[in-house]
Design a protein that fits this description.
With 117 residues, the chain is an alpha+beta fold. A four-stranded mixed beta sheet has the order 1-2-4-3. It starts with a helix and ends in a 7-residue tail after the last helix.
Length: 117
């Protein structure tokens, strides 16, 4: 009986994982590929344009992810990437600046984005 319960729970968790593994957190930029991840304990995102410009331009959404996204969507349609790391509650402190500096190095290196924003 115990082995049957273990097997049943394993199958249930497996099926739930398959069913929900493709759900995206972000619903605003649903037409684009998005990588959502943890960066230094903070929520981070990179949204990829369908066809990136050769210069690998990008825009940094500093705060209020998804609020009034018209400009973000326009620039994505023009080939810009969109990046974000949440430093809410740090209020421009040295810790926030440290996270942003490291995030800048990370995204320009990993995603080969232009060094100029």
């Amino acid at each position: 009986m115990i082995n049957f319960l273990k097997l049943s729970l394993t199958v249930l968790f497996f099926l739930l994982n398959i069913g929900f593994s493709n759900l995206r957190e972000d619903k605003i930029f649903i037409d684009y590929k998005i990588e959502e991840f943890n960066f230094m304990g903070r929520e981070a995102k990179v949204v990829f344009p369908e066809i990136p410009v050769q210069e690998r331009y990008w825009i940094w959404r500093a705060r209020f992810w998804g609020h009034e996204p018209q400009l973000d969507k326009l620039l994505l349609s023009k080939g810009f990437h969109l990046v974000y790391v949440d430093v809410a509650g740090l209020y421009g402190s040295p810790e926030a600046v440290k996270i942003w500096n490291k995030f800048y190095q990370f995204i320009t290196t990993k995603y080969n984005l232009n060094h100029f924003i």
